[in-house]
Amino acid sequence: MTSTRPDPTLQSLLNSHPNLSYEGSKGLVMEGTPLADLARQHGTPCWVISADTLRRRARALKDAFEAKNLPVHCHFAVKAQDHQACLTVLAQCGFGADVVSGGELRRALAAGIRAQDIVFSGIGKTDEELELAIHHQIGQINVESVEELHRLDALARKLERRARIAFRVNPDIDAQTHSKITTGRAEDKFGIAHDTVPALYRKTQTDMTGVELIGLAVHLGSQMVTEAPFRRGYERIASLVRTLRADGLHVSDIDCGGGLGIAYRDEKAPPPSMLAEVIAETLGDLNVQLHVEPGRWLAAPSGVLLARVIDVKEAARRFVIIDAGMNELVRPAMYDSWHGILPLHTPEDTTAGDVVDVVGPICESSDIFARQRRLPSLKKGDLVALLDAGAYGTVMSSTYNSRPLAAQIMIDGDRQAVIRRRQTLDELLAQEAVPDWLAHP
């Protein structure tokens, strides 16, 4: 879908990404590291993520809550960026993990995050995944349905353990974001309907011996850039807490979820102080332990995807064809999302340029990163960076069209390391087996 709003200028993109700048012959640098050097050294397409940016944003988020004197436990949403190097950086910043699968749970543990600092969310936890969580005695399991509650209670009793749980409430609130990343409406698959919570809460606390019900959880959606849905959702949770307590029930924890958005394009993205203020005003007087689960806000601006121009095709439109495709970064194809694109060389004129479609090599019409975007003139062999790719980039990448997974690099001050080497085609093919009866003669 083509927007009628004007695109941000190159300078406005730089202004909104303080970790990026142009430095003469070095071109585009990220936290002082020339990105063109990384592209030449490691090839393209190539992911780059900055440990310094992760740390700085983690500190900014914690500072926002400390300024409000809110006792908040921060759990990073692993689904946004699951590499163990990134999880290790955030663990060192005092973050726990919010996981949505047994695989993410194992990743978090392997990265040194303590089991007691892990929250397990998600609508479709298998018995095996629940047993894994019970075995490690993780900090909290967010129960999504009555059916899951009964399965979990039975499994915990079988294992002679007691699982700490919260009810994920579906508050029937529209997050006012993309429909595919909205999770708190009645028609969405997530959570327990808010009006059924009081009766279920009482039954659980009085009758179930395999679980310890400590509170409520809510997550309204992702990439939320306005205050109103946060406020409405948390007000509904606060009302539920008061109802439960009036009935003599114990509530000690509230998991506020995540969803804080960023400025991909020209959104008026709120700072974390907005979220802290809304939580303070709606939940701050309840004397509970608060939890938040940021993902995109921390990781997206910390990463870029580097690509090389394969060709510039002159047709009904001017197509800049790059060697990164929707198999690397699927968000534009899946969500019609907008990502800034900057050349790695320093443009001679930041205001001049060509109106182009930036497309990938995948054999799909949806493999498009930008439509009718004005960019500095690009030619075959030039390098570009796709911005805000640190979240929902590598984790959603695939080998579609038999394209091996791209390399991933972490930069940290003047240090750099390959944290995931480029997959070779031989390695990709080696994962397959041909049955004996089909073996080549």
Automatic annotation (TrEMBL):
Record pathway: Amino-acid biosynthesis; L-lysine biosynthesis via DAP pathway; L-lysine from DL-2,6-diaminopimelate: step 1/1
Protein name as it appears in the record: Diaminopimelate decarboxylase
UniProt entry keywords in alphabetical sequence: Amino-acid biosynthesis, Decarboxylase, Lyase, Lysine biosynthesis, Pyridoxal phosphate
Summary of the function given for this chain in its UniProt record: Specifically catalyzes the decarboxylation of meso-diaminopimelate (meso-DAP) to L-lysine.
Modification sites for N6-(pyridoxal phosphate)lysine: K79
Phylogenetic classification of the source organism: Bacteria, Pseudomonadati, Pseudomonadota, Alphaproteobacteria, Acetobacterales
Binding site for substrate: R296, R331, Y335, E364, Y392
E.C. number: 4.1.1.20
Organism annotation: Bombella dulcis
Pfam family for this entry, one: Orn_Arg_deC_N
Reaction catalyzed: meso-2,6-diaminopimelate + H(+) = L-lysine + CO2
